[in-house]
Design a protein that fits this description.
Blueprint: E1 23-29, E2 32-39, E3 46-50, H1 64-69, E4 73-78, H2 95-109, E5 115-120, H3 122-133, E6 138-144, H4 152-160, H5 164-178, H6 182-193, H7 204-207, E7 214-219, H8 227-236, E8 240-245, H9 252-255, H10 257-270, H11 273-276
Parallel strand pairs: 3-4, 3-5, 5-6, 6-7, 7-8
Antiparallel strand pairs: 1-2, 2-4
Helix pairs in contact: 2-3, 5-6
Length: about 280
């Protein structure tokens, strides 16, 4: 993997003291810049982290040290519109497919030709689409709270919104992760998910095109997705395992990081994906 320049553009106020990346920078992808970070040993297998719909690299701060410490080269990046990447004026109707193409372009830019993918929510949908586009590259998938259609629970939650306390907490988190972009990003994301066109969003047919092993994860207390949704994802994949977590909600990586990290690591080891994702010498 290419491990180029440190990031000369990152403002001091956004600098992350922990975990410190081995290298980081911006890559020009389809006319805008995406911010990326690389952690862990250069000779390790590659694990790509794809954040949730309002997240950023920072959302993985409880995963990065664990997986880097277990020998992975961990690549995390801010998708277009998020974190330190360039602002995004709006989300296209097929933004998941566009973001999957951009993620694959970023991997090509960084010299990654084999990897395992860990995606959360929107990031899980994007990881799924990456595996359909590049089955030769994707060695295994971990799909957390994957959207393959607009679940009625998703629409209800977004339409009626969180309570005042949760809204205030979300606002503070958005400001930390996205700075001045936060209000516009949130509105653009909500506008897309609540648009009439999203009623046609459906990745069900894409599931049968995935050939690699996959761990499908859902917290049973998730306010965005039903257990049936996760079951449909797992049933549609040819090599899947389903992990339903009774005590978790929409954010298992953040809610129960140690249990989550250990289960994901065990899955990747058991399937042989960790060795398969190792770069050529």
């Amino acid at each position: 993997m290419a491990t180029s320049r440190s990031d000369p553009h990152a403002p001091a106020a956004q600098a992350r003291r922990e975990p410190d990346p081995r290298s980081c920078g911006h890559a020009a992808i389809q006319g805008h810049r995406l911010y990326w970070e690389l952690h862990g040993p250069e000779e390790g297998p590659v694990l790509v982290l794809l954040h949730h719909g309002l997240g950023s690299v920072r959302a993985w701060r409880r995963q990065i040290p664990f997986f880097a410490g277990h020998g992975w080269q961990v690549l995390a990046f801010d998708r277009w519109g998020y974190g330190r990447s360039d602002p995004r004026p709006a989300f296209e109707q097929d933004f998941q497919r566009q973001d999957a193409r951009e993620a694959l372009a970023l991997l090509q830019e960084l010299g990654v030709d084999r990897a395992c993918l860990l995606g959360h929510s929107d990031g899980a949908s994007i990881a799924l689409l990456m595996a359909t586009e590049r089955p030769d590259l994707v060695q295994a998938l971990v799909l957390v709270a994957t959207h393959i259609y607009r679940d009625p629970k998703t629409a209800h939650y977004l339409e009626h919104g969180p309570d005042e306390a949760e809204r205030a907490r979300m606002s503070r988190g958005m400001q930390r992760e996205h700075g001045q972009k936060a209000p516009q990003l949130l509105q653009a994301w909500l506008d897309r998910w609540l648009s009439p066109e999203m009623a046609a969003f459906d990745l069900t047919d894409d599931l049968q095109r995935v050939r690699c092993p996959a761990l499908v994860v859902l917290g049973e207390q998730d306010t965005h997705l039903s257990v049936e949704h996760a079951r449909r994802v797992a049933q549609g994949l040819s090599r899947s395992r389903l992990w339903l977590i009774s005590e978790a909600g929409h954010m298992p990586p953040q809610e129960m990081p140690q249990v989550f990290n250990e289960r994901v690591q065990a899955f990747l080891q058991e399937t042989g994906a960790m060795q398969a994702a190792r770069p050529d010498p």
